[in-house]
Design goal:
Length: 841
């Protein structure tokens, strides 16, 4: 098909059929002849090049005829050898603007330029067409028709069973097994391939080899290096100037092929393998060491470090729009899953989210600072998000080994932002605390949780309720848990005021029956003793004895871990089951900067326990906690408070009970003002978010919103939901390799739903991925990053989508293991992959 026929049949006629009236504006008179040739019994063509008055009369007559059902005219084309009118003023002077408005016009925006039309007509000759246009902006139709008019690639087309030049190039780069076999059986295609490379890419093969592998290697190097140079904003280093590369006319073809190779999951692994080999062969990192800007395309792996640096620099300079643009460009590339790349991009995203949230909430804080109720409402409805974002950010930091310190400035900036907003909130909270006291009126107190949420239900005949007493489940974690549990059951989350001092012994005692009326504190040397009525509640056993005494055989208790591992059935007499979880508190107490993963492990256990409790016929679950916590990961010089003068018992470096005087650094308030009964007259504590001992990272025991607000979750259990026909999940590792050579292996996962049919569902499913040893111990988990939920360790995946998931293997583990893809609520295994370690020492 000639270029004129292509424009007539593929561009102008479809528009005429759709709108009936078409005005062709053509100041260079390129299209005059082809427009006049379109005249027929059904299409009226008016040529405005001859006489303006006559052409206007003819156009008006034809327009009237179009409206006449008895007339054969089905379309009107008006040819105007002038530029199209654009502004209202120009349209008033244009006698043919009437037809432009009532119908359509050509050229109409992007894609209608002469060059674009030629590229659409001859997609396989794009390089030659661009070369012709670079020499002459308006080449004749004859010149365009001559391009590729007598050229074909019969041997290549037959050998590879594809037609277009682009498909041939793609097949030569990444042939299927059948295509590779055909290429190896004979070399009759080689001469055509050399000509094709010259025509489409401007590549003159250097290799004298006639095998597919030798030709493909040179083609890969030429292709990738050309894209790299096209995208390079800076001058190419002198040491690389002589490396063969394409001329600018081939840029579109080069970039199209590279994009196709990177985006097609069937060729991604091959692309990465070849790109890394070429990067090493050309020694690109060393030659490009002095370069600072590599453009926007992710041709080679070594460019990732520069893109990461650009993102961090932009964040450090508060250019958040640029950070978002960089994240969008580079977080979904083939290199995302290599090494720590996924985690590093995840850290930048987490830092950006934290900084923006801190800045936003800092602006809002003044309007919620005049009353305790307003401040608490602000926290539970939105301000808690900064605590979630900080926790996720710190988890991302702990997952990355930043040996070169390249992320230090960005990490410090994000921590300073959190420190600033937390300090301002703390100032407001302490001031309001001095005025209104604790617990705040109108809110549930932890001391009333049992009597209001559990005791009334146990009066109902046959009603079975589980009471999960989870240590250090602060409010924002309760929100995360509520989101997970509400997928299957009816969940109610309300804020509860923790009992002061916010420590485990007091907090857990406050969750017992009668605590609201009878809990008090006494002093024994330098310790405080919770007293419930007349009994000292100084241990787990004593706390459980209170419930055992009250409910007898209707009561049972165990740890959350014991319940999950137990194969035994509960007695049918048990109507109150207490499950205890202390992992969050115990781990954060010892190593908070490296133990944040214990949080999602605890939430995972709770979800599993919920499902198991359904099987045991429980009607309801209540989840409560003793206290919250504040993470002070960024310890600075002076982060310590001088102790107030007086006779005090100091609690967890954040609170003091006894007698004394306040000062500029400490508040001192009557004990009953803060809801404490017993032997102590006063309570004191740091006004700021600092401890009485230097170096403390994990704060509890004191007063802050994070320490004092707790979640109270009620979960009404519905019917057990059984998965019917399970959709298929597939996992793989590096072309089915059986060994991992890094402690950060990248697993490919795809979710295929055979029931999708013609209408694939859009909803994503949640999956848990873990590596287990032969004893079912967890030896590897999903690395914190963009695709995983830091609170749960799970990922969301949609049908038909492949994701790259980075596992972080435990440093000390070596040997065989099984990667399992599971239902996070039931631990049902959907698919698994057996691997073993083979680390390079």
């Amino acid at each position: 098909m000639s270029i004129a026929q292509f424009i007539q049949n593929s561009i102008l006629l479809p528009r005429l059929k759709k709108r009936e009236v078409l005005v062709v504006y053509d100041p260079d008179r390129l299209y005059e002849t082809l427009c006049l040739e379109m005249a027929s019994d059904m299409i009226k063509v008016v040529n405005a090049a001859k006489s303006s008055i006559e052409s206007r009369e003819k156009a008006l007559e034809a327009l009237k005829a179009l409206g006449n059902a008895n007339n054969d005219i089905k379309g009107l084309l008006v040819y105007v050898p002038a530029k199209a009118s654009e502004t209202d003023e120009e349209k008033q002077l244009d006698p043919f603007s009437l037809y432009q408005v009532s119908g359509c016009f050509f050229p109409d925006g992007a894609g209608d330029e002469y060059l674009d039309l030629c590229l659409k007509a001859k997609p396989d000759q794009g390089t030659q067409i661009r070369r012709v246009f670079s020499e002459n902006p308006n080449p004749s139709f004859a010149v365009i028709d001559a391009i590729g008019s007598s050229r074909g690639w019969p041997h290549l087309q037959v050998t590879l069973k594809v037609d277009s030049a682009n498909d041939i190039l793609f097949a030569l780069l990444a042939p299927t097994a059948e295509q590779k076999k055909a290429l190896k059986e004979n070399d009759s295609w080689v001469a055509e391939a050399k000509e094709l490379f010259s025509v489409c890419l401007g590549l003159n093969l250097i290799t004298r080899g006639k095998t597919w592998s030798s030709i493909a290697n040179e083609l890969w190097r030429f292709l990738l290096f050309s894209e790299f140079v096209f995208d390079l904003p800076e001058a190419l280093p002198d040491s690389l100037v002589n490396v063969p590369r394409a001329n600018k006319e081939a840029k579109a073809v080069i970039e199209g092929l590279c994009d196709r190779l990177r985006n097609d999951r069937r060729t991604q692994a091959l692309y990465m393998e070849m790109a890394q080999a070429i990067e090493d062969e050309l020694d690109l990192p060393d030659h490009c060491e002095a370069l600072h800007d590599f453009g926007i395309r992710d041709t080679f792996l070594f460019e990732q470090k520069t893109f990461l640096a650009q993102g961090m620099d932009a964040l450090n300079m508060n250019d958040t729009d640029k950070v978002r643009y960089i994240l969008k460009q580079h977080t979904d590339t083939v290199w995302t899953g290599v090494g720590e790349s996924q985690a590093q991009w995840g850290l930048i995203g987490a830092a950006l989210s934290l900084c923006e949230a801190c800045e936003d909430f800092e602006r809002q804080l003044p309007q919620f600072s005049n009353h305790m109720d307003r401040l608490i409402d602000f926290y539970i409805n939105s301000l808690r998000e900064v605590d979630r974002l900080q926790r996720e950010f710190e988890q991302s930091v702990s997952d990355i080994i930043d040996g070169h310190g390249m992320m230090g400035e960005m990490v410090e900036k994000a921590r300073n932002a959190y420190r600033r907003i937390s300090s301002r909130v703390q100032d407001v909270f302490v001031c309001l605390l001095e005025k209104t006291g604790w617990p705040p009126s109108g809110y549930l107190s932890n001391t009333d949780v049992f009597d209001k949420k559990i005791a009334p239900k146990l009066k109902e005949s046959g009603y079975k309720i589980a009471y999960l007493m989870i240590d250090s489940l602060r409010y924002e974690l309760g929100v995360e848990l509520e989101k997970q549990l509400s997928e299957d059951d009816t969940v109610e989350l309300i804020p509860a005021a923790a009992q002061l001092p916010s420590i485990t012994s007091v907090g857990m005692a406050s969750l017992l029956p009668g605590a609201g009326q009878h809990l008090s504190l006494s002093r024994s040397d330098d310790k405080i003793i919770p007293i419930l009525k007349d009994a000292e509640i100084v241990s787990v056993k004593r706390r459980m004895d209170v419930l055992r005494k009250k409910y007898g055989p209707r009561f049972d208790e165990m740890t959350l871990a014991q319940f999950i591992q137990s194969k035994k059935k509960l007695s049918s007499d048990v109507h109150l089951l207490v499950l205890r979880g202390t992992e969050i508190d115990s781990h954060l107490e010892t190593a908070p900067e490296t133990s944040l993963r214990i949080i999602h492990d605890t939430l995972k256990r709770i979800r599993f326990a919920v499902n198991k409790l359904k099987n045991f016929g429980f009607n309801e679950i209540v989840i409560a906690t003793d206290h919250g916590f504040f993470l002070n990961i960024q310890v600075q010089a002076g982060d310590v408070c001088t102790k107030p003068s007086g006779n005090w018992v100091f609690i967890h470096d954040r609170l003091a009970l006894g007698d004394g005087d306040d000062d500029h650094a400490n508040f001192v308030l009557p004990a009953d003002h803060l809801g404490v009964r017993g032997e102590f007259k006063q309570i004191g504590g740091p006004r700021n978010l600092v401890p009485y001992r230097a170096g403390v990272l994990y704060f509890h025991g004191g007063v802050s919103l994070q320490e004092c607000l707790a979640p109270a979750i009620s979960l009404r259990l519905g019917k057990i939901t059984k998965e019917t026909k399970k959709p298929q999940r597939k996992i793989s590792y590096k072309k089915d390799a059986k060994c991992i050579t890094t402690r950060l292996p990248v697993i490919s996962l795809i979710f295929e739903d055979k029931q999708m049919g013609l209408f694939p569902r859009e909803d994503a499913i949640e999956l848990l991925i873990e590596a287990h040893d032969k004893k079912e111990n967890v030896v590897g988990e999903v690395m914190a990053g963009r695709i995983s939920n830091p609170a749960t360790g799970t990922i969301m995946i949609k049908p038909g989508v492949q994701v790259q998931v980075t596992l972080r293997m435990q440093e000390e583990y070596e040997g065989s293991f099984m990667v399992k893809v599971m239902n996070p609520a039931t631990f049902t295994v959907y698919c698994k992959l057996e691997l073993k370690t083979d680390y390079v020492v």
